[in-house]
Specification:
The protein has 350 residues and is mainly alpha-helical. Helix content is 64%, strand content 1%. It contains 13 helices and two strands; from the N terminus they run ααααααααβαβαααα. The protein has helices at residues 2-22, 24-48, 57-68, 76-91, 110-133, 146-153, 165-184, 197-219, 227-232, 256-280, 282-287, 291-304, 325-348; strands at 224-225, 248-249. It has a two-stranded antiparallel ribbon with strand order 1-2. It is globular and about 95 Å long. The chain starts with a helix and ends with a helix.
């Protein structure tokens, strides 16, 4: 009996060895395919991580107006720019990556954060268009196409299917195109774009808080005490007492590049939006002497989009040996925010 058991296990061992020997070529072939797939994914991932180039808003506006055989009326440049920004999210190398579930898109994090920064600005402007810019007063009816576009861009940015994020954003783009067609059509007078100081100021108020938050988060790459904690810990009864500062708040090192690329995406979108505002709101900006502030915002945003020569986002200390890309970006964002604040002050004056 023991001999039969030993013989049984010997036979099973021989079967396994025969199978492994026969399928060795197949196993090596599958392994080679996997290695090639991973290498291709890495190369493709690097290509997909490249940021889209900027474009000339004026040239693109003229091109679209000529193709539609329309005059670029007030609001044409802003609407065309919104459409181009949204289309760039979907049509850049790799398409829309934030909802990818397969390599290499699922491995990437810089580009999804860049996309989110662009998306935030697109959402804010679409809300301002629906709420203020396309309405003459608070009791006016909302534009029917903008009521579609604004919630479409607020759809879940990470939905892969049923429905997909891309499909929902394309519905928003089509709604903007219908609005643009009605806005520029001489036969249809039911689409409006009111380039007034108060409308622009309302959007700038939201933008100021966005940029302030980005600047603060970027600055926290080296750790900073929170103002709120410092105020709470002050001794109101003894103004000469030493102020107790709050604990330092520091961005986790794994999130440094995420915050940086979100700011890059916001800067890319805002650069084109301000170039469009410079066209459509030109009269009110000149009347309020705010054109210089607009140009200052554009200059700072162009600086924020400068070429990155380092293969990784560095997080050196404020005055250390290594560069700190977050603090450099924070400087540009803060100066742009200061110019936005100046714009709001000028626009609010009579």
């Amino acid at each position: 009996m023991p001999g039969k058991i030993r013989q049984y296990f010997r036979d099973r061992k021989d079967d396994v060895q025969d199978y492994a020997g026969g399928s060795g070529f197949i196993g090596k072939f599958i392994l080679a395919l996997l290695v090639v797939y991973l290498l291709v994914s890495v190369v493709v991932g690097i290509y997909w991580s490249s940021e889209p180039d900027t474009f000339s808003v004026r040239d693109y506006t003229r091109s679209v107006a000529n193709s539609m055989e329309r005059e670029p009326v007030t609001g044409f440049a802003t609407t065309v720019t919104m459409i181009r920004i949204a289309e760039t999210l979907l049509e850049k190398p790799g398409g829309y990556i934030s909802n990818d579930i397969f390599p290499p898109g699922v491995w990437l994090d810089n580009m999804p954060n860049w996309e989110f920064g662009v998306l935030v600005q697109l959402r804010d402007l679409s809300r301002a268009m629906r709420r203020d810019i396309a309405r003459s007063q608070s009791q006016s009816a909302e534009d029917p196409d903008l009521t579609i576009a604004e919630p479409q861009f607020h759809f879940d940015s990470g939905s892969w299917a049923i429905p997909s994020t891309e499909a929902e954003y394309r519905r928003g783009i089509e709604a903007l195109k219908r609005y643009l067609n009605r806005l520029s059509s001489p036969e249809q007078a039911n689409a409006h774009f009111f380039a007034r100081a108060d409308n622009l100021n309302n959007w700038l108020a939201d933008l100021e808080t966005r940029l302030g938050s980005l600047s603060r988060t970027l600055g926290e790459s080296v750790g900073k005490a929170t103002v709120s904690d410092a105020v709470v810990n002050m001794d109101a009864g003894d103004p000469l007492a030493e102020e107790a500062m709050g604990e330092d708040v520091k961005t986790a090192w794994t999130k440094i590049d995420d915050v940086f690329y979100e700011a890059r995406g916001s800067a890319w979108a805002l650069l084109h939006i301000f170039r469009a505002i410079e066209v459509d709101f030109r009269t009110v900006l000149q009347d309020k002497n705010a054109m210089a502030s607009v140009r200052q915002v554009i200059i700072e945003l162009e600086g924020a989009l400068g070429e990155i020569w380092s293969p990784v986002i560095l997080n050196g200390s404020g005055f250390g040996v290594l560069a700190n890309h977050s603090l450099t970006m924070a400087a540009y964002i803060s100066r742009a925010n200061a110019a936005v604040s100046n714009m709001r002050d000028l626009l609010s004056r009579g």
